[in-house]
Design a protein that fits this description.
0% helix, mainly beta
Length: 124
């Protein structure tokens, strides 16, 4: 399983970015997918997850601002990030798992496959 993120960059506070994660080597529709983020001073944080049936789960810090979606035909996962703040600055990673419960959708230890990450920087 190979995952490749893209779409990161630098934006001003209040701006938007859309991250993408392309997968190869998997039957995309059979996997749960999620986005995580990491800054050096904090533990890795689950941002948003999407189950095989399309159910989604978000961290409280991003609810109403971020939207996770998937296009199974294109083997691609997305994270639309709106109204960004400097606190959203981090390295963002996508991850895949063949199965997880809804409550575990954004628990990093449930995901064995990870991308290399894409940096998001939000300036005030």
């Amino acid at each position: 399983v190979q995952l490749m993120e893209s779409g990161g960059g630098s934006v001003q506070s209040g701006g938007s970015l859309r991250l993408s994660c392309e997968a190869s080597g998997v039957k995309w529709s059979s996997y749960c997918m999620a986005w995580f983020r990491k800054v050096p001073t904090r533990e890795r944080e689950g941002v948003a997850g999407i189950a095989r049936d399309g159910a989604t789960r978000y961290a409280d810090s991003v609810k109403g601002r971020f939207t996770i979606s998937r296009n199974n035909a294109k083997n691609t996962l997305y994270l639309q990030m709106d109204n960004l703040t400097p606190e959203d600055t981090a390295m963002y990673y996508c991850a895949a798992a063949q199965w997880t419960t809804y409550s575990d959708l954004i628990r990093s230890n449930k995901y064995p496959f990870w991308g290399q990450g894409t940096q998001v920087t939000v300036s005030s």
